[in-house]
Design goal:
The structure is a homohexamer.
Chain A: H1 12-30, H2 34-45, H3 48-68
Helix pairs in contact in A: 1-3
Chain lengths: 76, 76, 76, 76, 76, 76
């Protein structure tokens, strides 16, 4: 799977995207039934508590990715 | 999108601002309907549990941004 | 705003104070109505779950500030 | 046990796998009865709040593993 | 206040103690009424969810303290 | 107490064990009555939300221990 090839991302935007992907793929790895995931999605997307909790997972994954890329310090 | 151009921020205040933006944009990326987000907002802004949880997301995003800027150690 | 001028704090005590300020200011930035905040405060200050969650936000902000100050290793 | 031999993983994909294993083994170490775990599993796999919380544990374990492997910076 | 003098601790045991103190003092700084704190204590000490959440705060504060002391690597 | 002597662990397995011990001892330090702890245990060991939250505490303690041991990079 492509998202598991490297933490190195050319840009911050790509890094952010990878953080989302990792977070989403973890859910998919635990709840493996795509039908169930599809049913669950609208529920949590309207529940602010869960939206905030999801944001936290993204923030943690992103922290790892940002470290891996030296915060894109030399990019620009 | 501008907030995805760089983690480098001239000042601490700008870095803090970016932390808020990242946190907010994550929510928007999961709940893509602006109308739903608008409806959800008053609810969570009056629920201290959710306010505290949101603060935690901001704190984690900020930690990453502060690292990226060497904590603005040489700024002043 | 003064608390957004620098993460550098002369003493550990000042650093701890800044962690509290950052945490509090995040809440104020999300719930901008001071009247609502005033009403919310007594509620969460008597709810141990929320007190503990608030402590966690302070602990994360403090971790960032402590890093920024090299843990005040050479202070004494 | 094999997963407790080393944090060094040849690839990012293996590192991600180890993060899942560590998270799962912690649960198993606290709830030692495999029958109970089997009964609990369907419940939490349909509860988005718990799926998100699990993702967070995986994200934290992964952060440690990624650090241990220098983010697989020199792998490709 | 003594616990705000330094993060440097001679031993791991003292560092652990400081983590507890910091966590407890944060609660006391938010809920300033000692009588209310006294009343709240038995409630959360019998609620495993809150005990676990408190442990997490201690773990985060300890992480900061352990970093500050270079993990007591050269102590023994 | 032995677990408070050093964060240095010969092996990853021992480090993982220490993470569990630290997490458990924090609970014991807050809820000091062993009889109450004994009564609380079955309850949380069957509640997946609490099992996941406990796993998170272990993950954070382990992150600190892994750092302290340079991730056992040179062990094998």
């Amino acid at each position: 799977m492509d998202y598991l090839k490297s933490l190195q991302c050319k840009t911050l935007a790509k890094g952010r995207e990878l953080a989302f992907t990792l977070a989403r793929k973890t859910i998919a790895a635990i709840q493996t039934d795509p039908q169930v995931r599809k049913e669950l999605r609208p529920k949590y997307a309207q529940d602010t508590t869960q939206l905030i909790a999801s944001s936290q997972v993204v923030a943690i994954e992103f922290q790892t990715i940002a470290m891996a890329n030296n915060y894109w310090r030399y990019e620009n």
